[in-house]
Design a protein that fits this description.
With about 425 residues, the chain is α+β, with helices and mostly antiparallel strands. The protein is about 30% helix and about 30% strand. Strands 3-2-1-4 form a four-stranded parallel sheet, sandwiched between helices. A four-stranded antiparallel sheet has the order 5-8-6-7, with helices on both faces. Helix 2 crosses helix 3 and helix 3 packs antiparallel against helix 4.
Amino acid sequence: MTQAEKPRVLLLATTTGYQTQRYVEAAEKLGCAVVLGTDRCHVLADPWQDAALPLRFERAEEAAVEIVDFARAKPLSAILAAGDRPTPTAARAAQALGLLSHPPEAADICRDKYRSRERLREAGLSVPEFTRFQVDADPREALAVGDIEFPCVLKPLALSASRGVIRANNPQEFVAAFDRIRALLRSPDVGVLREETSNFIQVEAYIEGQEIAVEGTMERGRLRLLAIFDKPDPLEGPYFEETIYTTPSRLAGESQQQVVQALTRAVGALGLYHGPLHAELRINSAGVWVLEIAARSIGGLCSKALRFRIPLVDENVSLEELLIRLALGMDVSRVFREDTASGVMMIPIPQAGFYQETHGIEQAWEIPGVEEVTITAKSQQKLVPLPEGASYLGFIFARGRSPSFVEDALRRAHEKLSFVLTPELPIVRSA
């Protein structure tokens, strides 16, 4: 097959996406040609020498037009988005080109925690009580007019990975959290995104209970769950840094069925149709609470915790390969997750500073069940912990006979690691 005859896949990704290379490798395995679309420099022509299509994801309509223009000369067979930001662009371009995808309205709603909460509440699903305030509002006035009960959770409308999410237990903590999130939304790295959602801060009731994540797909309007991840570490605040995911879930069968029922109603209410989804839910005595549903797959390198099989094919299938097959319209109904329990630890950043090195990696690898220890932080990289931070130190992956075995392996491996960070020196101004 010549290069011109290969199915051409457009992958939309930001500059910081961990998954980009995994998508490229999966596409090449399937015999597809890959084109990258990124929001990198628009002034220089191909600054990274990868022939990427430069796009502005904050201008989804304009970016979609550019993709359609590109496709006139180089027809596309599928469009995929790695991460949250490109999903509205991907949906619009796919719709214009007649490719399978989520509808643009659904992609937009999933990128806005306020709008998605509204839609889910209208559908009668259990969601936290919520309201939003302008980012420039006085938090003391917000307390006076907002009828806010404690504890509550404050968060940005569009940032992912629990960035900017803070629990407040009293008015003083509320004011401090509001000011802190406002500073984050006004910071250069968030401000450069130029997103309308950065003009608001959402306040929600805190929901107690066990938190889980669900990885799934929509296949022409039909929901399919790929994995339910338990989050064994309590996520009670004041920040909500996610660390360990394990699957299969240890939830009782009845609870898992309730999760399926709630998600089925939720994706219908949001209008998701074809493509990946990643959901966050909490379960307590009142039932299943839908916290977030994103029109994309699990983030970072966490997808490596999932491996799939195709009947009669003696090889593993990655999540990225499965999603490319799905986007191409191939039948993935017979693809199933491996029987082995698996999990990932997103290595938290212990304190702010400049990353130097990690000790104990070889010892961590030696823990039974551990398959990989990957440090993604680069030498001299400035690391910032949550709630302001947007990355992890790295990832640990494990597999084994049971979720509890995997969880124990991840914890033991993490205990072997120690990290060297040098503190950021304060700026001293002369008189």
